[in-house]
Every structure is written in C-alpha cells, then in structure tokens.
TrEMBL record:
Entry keyword Hydrolase: yes
Reaction it catalyzes: Hydrolysis of terminal non-reducing N-acetyl-D-hexosamine residues in N-acetyl-beta-D-hexosaminides
Glycoside hydrolase family 3 N-terminal domain span: 16-346
Listed name of the protein: beta-N-acetylhexosaminidase
Keyword vocabulary terms for this entry: Glycosidase, Hydrolase
A biological process from GO: carbohydrate metabolic process
Family: Belongs to the glycosyl hydrolase 3 family.
MF (Gene Ontology): beta-N-acetylhexosaminidase activity
Top EC class, one word: hydrolase
SUPFAM superfamilies tied to this protein: (Trans)glycosidases (SSF51445)
EC number(s) reported in the record: 3.2.1.52
Length: 520
C-alpha cells in the first residue's frame, strides 16, 4: 500500500521543481511496448510527475483520427493495467495519483471489465436517484480494485445540440435539472467508497457541433444564457461538493472579454468565472493537452503547458512536453503561485491515499444492477402498449438491422413470429447501431438505412432501438406505429425489451433529449 506524507511535511520535503512536477499528469497507455513503458518510467523518476491518466492505446486516442491506426484487442488489458500501475508507482519518488475516464465503467478503456449504461440511458430514468448512486459507487469500486484513485467523471455538459459529435450519449440529457441531479447522485456514489470525482467539460461542451479533439468549438451564447443553462450543473454540483473540475477546450467569447481564447488557457474563465464567481476551491484539471484544438496552436514545446498553468489549471492532463513545460513554469511562475497549486494537488492526493475499506455490502453484481437500470430506462417514445400487444395477436415478420455481438431480442421474437399467425404487413425491427458515436451514420450501412426508410413508408412497423437514440435523427421515425428505446445492447436490456414486447412490463423511462424529426 502506497502512503503519502501529510502536506505540512511534503511542503518541506519537495523542492520547487519537484512541486511543479507534481502538477503534470502525462498519458499512460495500457498497450505500450516495453520500450515505451521504460521511457515513461524514466520520465516519472526524473521529473517527479504527480500522476498518470490511463488510456487503452496510442491508436485509440481520439487525436489519432487522421492516422487510422488499428486498435489491437487485448484480452488481458486489466491485468496489464494493474501490473503497469505497480511498475510506475515503484518508479516514483512520491506516490502517483492514477486517473482514468470511466464514465460508463472501466470498459470505456479496458477490455473484459464491467460496463454500465451510457449517461443518456441513465438520463431516461425517472425518480430513481438511488440507482444512479449505485452506478457511481460500483464504477468506483471497480476503479479501486484496479489501483485507480480518480474517475474523471461524470460529464455534466447539457447536450442541447443533436449534432454534437463528441458529447451526445455521454450526457445525461438536455434538461439542466435532470443533468444536475443525476450528476450529484453519481458523484455521491463515487465518493462513498473513497474514489475522487470530476465534472467536465467546463464551461459546457453540449451545444457544439465540433469535436474538440480535432478542432476548436466556438460557442456564441451570451454569458446570461450560459449562466442560466450550461453553467447551471457546474454551479450546483460545486455547491454539493465535487473534488475537481475539468476545463474543456472551448472558445466562448462572452466569458473572456470577447477574446475567444480556449477555456483551458483563459485566466478569465478559470481564475475569474470558476474560482471567483462559482467559488470553486478544489482542483482544476485541464482537458487533454494533446487535443488538436489547442496543441496545434503552439509550436514551441512547453508553451502550452505554461499557458495552461498560467490560466489557472492545477493539473496538466496528457501533457506531452513535460520537461519543457516544467522549465517554462520554473522560469515564469511566481513561487507562491506554484506553492498554492501544489497545495491543492497534494491535498487531493492525501484524500486519494486515505485508507478506505468498502464493506462487502457495497459490492453489487454488474448484471443485477444493469437489470434494474434496464427496467427503469426503457422508453416507449411513440405508440402505445396496445399497438405492441396487437402485433403478437395479428402476426408479424421480424428483421434485424445493424450489428451486435448479442441479438437475443431479435432471436427470441423471430421464434415467436415463426410460431404465430402470419402477417406480412406487420414488421418488428430491432435496430442495433454498430457504433455509439454519430459519425458515418453510426456505421449503419446505406442499404440498411434505405431498407428501414422504405419499410417505415410501406409497412406497419414497430421499432426497438438498442443503441444511441440519436440514430432516430436519420429516419422519419414517427412513421412507425411504435418506437421503443432500449438504449443499450447488453443482454439485460434486450431481455427487458423482450418482456415489454410480450406485454409483461411497461416502459418507465423518458427520452432525455429531443430528436429532430426528418420529414418524409
């Protein structure tokens, strides 16, 4: 068990350069080569960096969009992660703070680990905040067992732009009250077992049509409009207690005197709005500094790291120029400012390394929790239960579109159709969008979408969707007799949808976003 010295001791043990190193959090990749692992070990030992943020592989990084490198499946990712954490901790003079993006569980980064529903699915759940608490708690327990201290979640962006290419399903929805309440419950669950939490992407990445991994989104709303909506979840979760805030790479002229500087390097937004107006006293972490929206702005190594520090970030996430960045900060920063940042970061580490032994009752089987979440989130978007029940009585054909490793819903309903009355005018369609992100029409084939549109116009269709509900933007979904949202393609969610189709349960969920109807 790694232990960390109290702040009053650490402040004299570490020299100023070591304190600057504690503010750096480079990326660590689970599927790195031995040579790359040793390079990071040297970096940790030489520059005394404060922590690491783990990703699956260099090929999976969103900024590899242009490179199209193939992502290699690693069945032993979790074991590899645990071994790497041990190695990197052993290379460190001072214990490392280990973080990861686990918005819907470790499965976001690591194969063969528990996966929970996306935030948009949780957003559909009504008045069951105890379940959201359990999701945050269970993900935190999974993190703790892996050796991770800090889950960089939840997303509190209000997704009020259906064309958002990067937030979308990662948001609890478009209603500020729903987003806020879900976030607070998730955070409380996370903190209940001693894992650090983080809200992102300040000041709000929801109303953008640009992916900040690749370009700089510009939000032209007034400060009054942002305070009333996008900033509401940040303000309220800060009041309720959150460990850290991640600042996004977002250009919002109304928040920085018309300059439109990316928020991550804007003193007006971090030191002014976040610190002074919203009274946030915890740790501020930058979004990944390798993201093209900011990394391409600075050709001189270390300049971006200095600018991010100078703007008010305490931790520089995915810093790619650690050596040069440390030197720039040493050359330019007020020592008192360094001490203030170090103070916040070290106290966060103290909190992370405090002993915490969750009791056995904290642990809940993933499948059991997912069954509860499936029951509460299933949404009857259009139509009614009698329309659905009449299909079985009248007879129907069954069709599957898209791809999924599990198609238990359509397999069972096909058996029901084969053994029942025949009616070619009734078509039950199970839609499995291959990807959760909207790019390339969620990877649905053109011929699949054409067939779906044709059937909607010529047949009586009931549509069950097992994926991102924004896929409905692609079709005239209101032509269907009924649309039912299962949200996830997990077996638990398909089993629950099957029970609904058979008339055994009712749909309890509410779609937390607006779908733009495409007219026929």
């Amino acid at each position: 068990m790694f232990k960390i010295a109290p702040y009053n001791m650490a402040t004299t043990q570490l020299d100023l350069k070591e304190k600057v190193g504690q503010l750096f959090m480079p990326a660590a990749f689970i599927n790195d080569t031995e040579e790359e692992i040793q390079e990071l070990e040297k970096l940790i030992g030489k520059y005394h960096i404060g922590g690491l943020c783990f990703f699956h592989s260099r090929a999976s990084a969103a900024t590899n969009f242009e490179g199209k490198k193939k992502i290699v499946y690693n069945e032993q990712s979790l074991t590899t992660l645990k071994n790497l954490i041990r190695r990197y901790q052993n290379a460190a003079k001072y214990p490392l703070l280990i973080s990861i993006d686990a918005e819907w569980g470790l499965a976001m980064r690591i194969e063969n680990t528990p996966q929970y529903p996306y935030a948009i699915t949780l957003g559909a759940i009504q008045n069951k905040e105890d379940l959201i608490f359990k999701v945050g708690q269970q993900i935190a327990l999974d993190c703790r067992k892996a050796g991770i201290h800090w889950n960089l979640a939840p997303v509190v962006d209000i997704n009020n732009n259906p064309n958002n290419p990067v937030i979308g399903y990662r948001s609890f929805g478009e209603d500020k009250l729903n987003v806020t309440q879900k976030a607070i419950s998730f955070i409380k669950g996370t903190q209940s077992v001693g894992i650090l939490s983080c809200i992102k992407h300040f000041p709000g990445h929801g109303d953008t049509a640009t992916d900040s991994h690749l370009g700089l989104p510009i939000i032209k709303k007034s400060k009054e409009a942002l305070m009333a909506n996008e900033l509401y979840p940040f303000r309220e979760t800060i009041k309720n207690g959150v460990d850290s805030v991640m600042v996004g790479h977002l250009s919002i002229p109304s928040l920085d005197n018309g300059e439109g500087t990316p928020a991550t390097i804007s003193s007006s937004i971090i030191k002014g709005l976040l610190r002074k107006e919203l009274n946030f006293n915890g740790v501020v972490i930058s979004d990944a500094l390798n993201m093209h929206s900011v990394s391409k702005m600075f050709s001189q190594k270390g300049e971006l790291e200095w600018r991010a520090f100078d703007a008010g970030n305490d931790i520089l996430c995915f810093a790619e120029n650690t050596k040069e960045g440390i030197q720039k900060i040493m050359d330019n920063a007020d020592p008192n400012e360094i001490e203030e940042r170090f103070n916040r970061v070290w106290k966060l580490k103290e909190q992370a390394f405090a002993s915490h032994s969750p009791s056995a009752k904290d642990q809940q089987e993933t499948s059991a929790l997912n069954k509860q979440l499936a029951t509460e989130s299933l949404t009857l978007l259009t139509g009614n239960d009698s329309i659905v029940s009449n299909f079985t009585r009248e007879g129907f054909n069954c069709l599957s579109l898209g791809e999924s490793t599990d198609k238990s819903f359509v397999e069972t309903t096909s058996e029901i159709a084969d053994n029942g009355p025949k009616n070619r005018d009734n078509v039950l369609i199970a839609l499995y969008p291959p990807k959760v992100k909207p790019q390339n029409n969620f990877d649905l084939k053109t011929e699949e979408l054409d067939l779906l549109r044709q059937l909607l116009n010529t047949k009586r269709v009931i549509l069950y969707v097992f994926g991102n509900p924004y896929v409905l933007n692609l079709i005239n979904y209101k032509a269907a007799k009924a649309v039912v949202l299962g949200y996830q393609n997990f077996k638990e969610f398909q089993d629950n949808a099957l029970a609904h189709f058979k008339g055994e349960i009712i749909a309890k969920g509410t779609l937390p976003v607006t779908i733009n109807l495409i007219e026929p």
